[in-house]
Write a structure and sequence with these properties.
The complex is a heterodimer of chains A (about 325) and B (about 375).
Chain A lengths: L12 H11 L4 H16 L4 E3 L2 E4 L6 E7 L11 H4 L6 E6 L8 H9 L4 H10 L14 E3 L8 E3 L2 E5 L1 H5 L2 E4 L5 E2 L10 H5 L2 H10 E5 L3 H19 L2 E5 L19 H20 L2 E3 L1 H8 L12 H18 L6
Parallel strand pairs in A: 3-4, 3-7, 7-11, 11-12
Antiparallel strand pairs in A: 1-2, 2-4, 5-6, 8-9, 8-10
Helix pairs in contact in A: 1-2, 4-9, 9-10, 11-12
Chain B lengths: L13 E4 L2 H7 L15 E4 L4 H9 L13 H7 L9 E5 L8 E4 L5 E3 L8 H10 E3 L5 H15 L4 E5 L11 H24 L2 E4 L1 H8 L1 H4 E3 L2 E2 L1 H17 L10 E5 L9 E7 L6 E2 L4 E13 L8 E12 L3 E6 L4 E3 L3 E6 L18 E7 L1
Parallel strand pairs in B: 1-2, 1-3, 3-7, 7-8
Antiparallel strand pairs in B: 4-5, 4-6, 9-10, 11-18, 12-14, 12-17, 13-16, 14-15, 15-19, 16-18
Helix pairs in contact in B: 1-9, 2-5, 5-6
Classes of the chains: A alpha/beta (about 325), B alpha+beta (about 375).
Chain lengths: ~325, ~375
């Protein structure tokens, strides 16, 4: 394990306090000030580190990019920058540029094949969805640093995908247009009066869409094979795919006599399927299950949210895989 | 309702194999006793792979006459009949990792050669000329063998199977450790699938060890730390207890108590009864739904620690046949609370029960998560 992360002393903390006092927390001026501070930090040679973003050594000419495309289970990724950057004679950017509701493999391929038309217009309008989420940026060869476009673009040297969305997300399909949508999880924690406040919209959704259910393993592996092929052709990236913890933390059924726990069986099936497909499809399996179990799973709330210790262990495993499967870090 | 009498000695037979995970958990002297304090009769057998187990349960193979003296012990172990007379048979998937299973060409008898056992010249020649190595077993065969074993054991013997921690220390061989994880994952899946279709009880060593941190609690395949062995033991004993085999089983009455689902669930609410006083019940009948709630865990975020609460509804399913003689109107219950009395006949008096009355065998089925 490495020591605590140190980004250096904060830049002029007083000004942030003043801005908060004047405009409230998380205001637009505070956001602008944060960006300015981060820019100054980076120009001083410090790394920018947020939950889903790491940018280091911005003055270097060579750029190395690691692009994460998955849900909460990939939040360990950006922290790997502190391990990898010191070994690189380049500027490193690690970005997890997605949320779990946009990364199920069939939804991703729908975006690759292109989706447009009046049905999409109606869906975007009525469900307040981001139109951009229907056109995946996953297959573009380079990516920009969020909030810092002046830093230019980074190549996708490594793309990290996750199996989690295909394990757990349920999509909905338009009954006539066959458009797939993932309404997202915001409503789980939203005020129910807001969710059910517009009953016409609820009625429209239930009449226009049907549940597409969870994706079967064969379907997932077919989709993943195509995604990896397209990624390698379009970006030249090394593709890693993370499995998840297969067991349910804290839910040990003492009596399995008639218990039916399809979720854990499904996770094992997907983990094994992933391993079997990896050679022919040309991707590297990141065995998150093994690393999570090694660190201890008792602090986990569920199979995709990892503890701080687990995340640090995952970063070290990521570093090992980068060393083994790329030449980015030298010999 | 199961009313199997205790054995002649007043004890109940449990046979288990000497795989390290099994021995370290339920193999401890004095651990398994009945509710009345009688020791449970325990028989320990050499560990055996599922294909050898099935052959042994079939009991249709005899020791061939050409066996050298030194090799006799291998074949004697392969023909023991202890499993067929036990109330509980506990085995481990560790045995599936064995690659030293042979088949005697003439008799077809399968047997295992112990790891690192000395083999003299005569035994080596006999193995080479009269026997054939069977090689490693695949997961489909393991699943099929386990299902066959359940069928051969019959309703009077319950099969308890320990799954494998998929973690082994990597040392200098990380690729080897990952390959092991892959193999163990497949075996655990095979067991889970078999347990979904056959009444096999799973001791989930993979999860228990992972809860503690497999990095500190696994030394080799199936070999766990003392702390992990304690945890596994607790679950294994609970499994065996849930079967009712630790009860004297001499009563025609049984208490229906709230079963434990996991270590974090202590109380819940009965949301719906499907049976009423006077109804007869059969194996597989859903008796009532219970909602366990308040499962909280730390998400483990570094900056903002969040709490998550889950509610789980489970159906409590009858494991035996009987008649509901009394149903408690209580809805808020804790694990172990008595909620009903079940009798072998409808004319029995439910008040003839006490704390030593055996528990009615039940299972849990996930209704909603």
């Amino acid at each position: 394990m490495s020591g605590p992360i140190n980004n250096g002393p904060p830049t002029n903390p007083i000004s942030l306090k003043i801005v908060r006092k004047m405009f409230g927390r998380l205001s637009s001026p505070e956001e602008k000030l944060r960006k300015m501070r981060n820019t100054v930090r980076m120009q001083r040679g410090q790394a920018l580190y947020r939950t889903n973003l790491y940018v280091g050594n911005i003055r270097a000419k060579r750029k190395v990019g690691i692009y994460g495309f998955g849900g909460c289970d990939l939040t360990f990724l950006a922290g790997s920058g502190h391990l990898i950057q010191p070994r690189l004679d380049a500027s490193l950017c690690i970005n997890r540029a997605s949320a779990v509701e946009g990364v199920r493999s069939d939804f991703v391929l729908q975006g690759l094949d292109g989706v447009d038309g009046p049905v999409l217009d109606e869906v975007v309008d009525k469900l307040d969805l981001d139109r951009g989420s229907f056109t995946s940026t996953l297959f573009e060869p380079r990516f920009t640093v969020p909030d810092h476009p002046r830093l230019g673009t980074y190549p996708k040297d490594i793309v990290v995908l996750s199996i989690a969305a295909d394990l757990s997300r349920t999509l909905y399909q338009h009954r006539t247009d066959r458009l797939l949508i993932d309404p997202g999880g915001w409503w789980l924690n939203a005020d129910m009066t807001q969710v059910l406040g517009d009953l016409d919209r609820v009625k429209w959704f239930s009449s226009a869409f049907k549940k597409a259910g969870k994706i079967p393993l064969d379907g997932y592996l077919d989709n993943l094979t195509r995604i990896v092929k397209e990624l390698r052709e379009r970006t030249g990236a090394l593709v890693m795919v993370c499995n998840t913890l297969v067991v349910d933390p804290g839910t040990g059924a003492v009596d399995y006599q008639f218990a039916n726990s399809p979720a854990t069986v499904r996770r094992r099936e997907f983990a094994i399927g992933l391993r079997e497909a990896s050679h022919d499809a040309g991707f590297v399996v990141f065995d998150v299950d093994r690393v999570a179990k090694r660190s201890g799973i008792s602090g986990q709330a569920d199979f995709v949210h990892y503890t701080a210790d687990q995340k640090q262990a995952l970063r070290h495993e990521f570093m090992r895989l980068v060393e083994r499967h790329t030449t980015l870090l030298g010999s | 309702m199961a009313t199997a009498p205790a054995s002649d000695a007043g004890t109940i037979g449990i046979v288990f194999t000497d795989s390290p995970d099994v021995i370290d958990s339920i193999g401890r002297p004095g651990l398994l006793t009945t509710r009345t304090g009688d020791p449970v009769e325990v028989i320990i057998e050499p560990r055996l792979r599922s294909d050898v187990l099935v052959q042994r349960l079939r009991g249709d193979s005899e020791i061939p006459g050409d066996v050298p003296v030194g090799a006799a012990r291998w074949l004697v172990a392969a023909t023991s009949t202890a499993f067929r007379s036990a109330k509980v048979a506990a085995i481990s998937l560790v045995a599936e990792l064995s690659t030293v299973v042979y088949r005697h060409l003439e008799s077809g008898l399968l047997f295992e050669v112990g790891d690192g056992e000395p083999i003299d010249e005569e035994m080596g020649r006999w193995l080479a000329e009269r026997c054939q190595p069977v090689g490693p077993i695949d997961e489909q065969a393991t699943a099929a063998n386990l299902e066959t074993a359940v069928a051969l054991l019959g309703a009077d013997t319950r099969l308890v199977v320990y799954n494998l921690s998929t973690f082994v220390p990597d040392g200098d061989d990380i690729e080897g450790a990952i390959a092991f994880a892959d193999r163990a994952q497949r075996l655990d899946l095979a067991l889970a699938r078999a347990a979904g279709t056959s009444p096999i009880l799973v001791v989930d060593a993979d999860r228990i060890v992972a809860e503690l941190g497999a990095g500190d609690h696994v030394t080799a395949p199936g070999r766990y730390s003392a702390e992990a062995a304690n945890e596994i033991s607790e679950e294994a004993v609970a499994q065996i207890d849930a079967l009712g085999v630790l009860d004297p089983m001499t009563s025609e009455l049984a208490l229906l108590v709230i079963p434990r689902y996991d270590r974090r669930t202590h109380s819940g609410s009965i949301t719906r009864w499907y049976k009423r006083t006077g109804d007869s019940v059969g194996p597989g009948d859903v008796l009532f739904d219970i909602e366990f709630g308040g499962l909280a865990a730390n998400l483990g975020a570094t900056r903002d620690v969040k709490m998550k609460t889950r509610v789980m509804t489970l159906g409590v399913v009858a494991g035996d046949a009987g008649h509901l003689l009394e149903v408690s109107p209580t809805t808020d219950v804790s694990v172990g609370d008595r909620v009903a009395v079940v009798g072998a006949r409808p004319d029995l008096d439910p008040s003839d029960t006490d704390e030593l009355t055996p528990h009615f065998r039940v299972g849990l089925r996930v209704v909603e998560r």
